[in-house]
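Treating backbone geometry as a discrete language has practical consequences that deserve illustration. The sequence in question and its structure tokens are set out directly beneath this paragraph.
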Amino acid sequence: MVFDVRSHETYSSLRVPPSAEVVLRLDGRGFHGLTEKLGFTRPYDENFRDIMAATSMDIMEEFSPAFIYTFSDEINILLSEVPFSGRVEKLDSVFAALASSSFTLEALSLGFKLDQAVSFDCRTIPLAGGAVQEYFRSRQSEAWRNCLNGYAYWTLRAEMGKEEAVRTLEGLKSEGIHDLLFERGINISRVPSWQRRGIGVYRRPVEVEGYNPLRDERVTASRMRTIVDMDLPLFTGEFFRELIRTG
């Protein structure tokens, strides 16, 4: 009797709905401990930022999604075309593996010594219609909460230690956290935009200079380029309409 492998691959036939927009969300596994071991600055570190941005660029170059949005240890990918015939098992495994290996190589290239494997998990999120905009707005809101809470926690922890910092922040609403930081000389609305709103990776037309030998003159032309946007606006419908129009 021949063993039927495919009949035991429980989820191999699970596919995303053909009419849905598809977002993949990648999250770093155990990154709190990893970043501590690597000595990254808290709450934000430019080396970690650059590794996550470079990882996102690698994903963009490999699969050409419509938009990638990253903050903290999270990468959100809006697919323009769904590869692997929409098979969820393949989407989750391949994108997680690509992010894990890319992050590792980028970290090593910056001189960081890794003594443990780096891994991301991935979940596939089918969305309908305007839900795409709402999804990314919700993730940007989460980036803002992370920024506010991160600055508050690490500022207090340097002042009074871990347990007292947690007790001080317990039950405190955003206005109170704003006041607490302002009293310590931190205007949270003026920290770098990438910390408050996250980072976008997407294609945009840019003007490039060239030379026309027939006319012997300098000329300009529009070319699509992938950019890493560290000064994102608040996400609006207009932002996503422009993204779709020019992407």
The first strand starts at residue 21 and ends at 28.
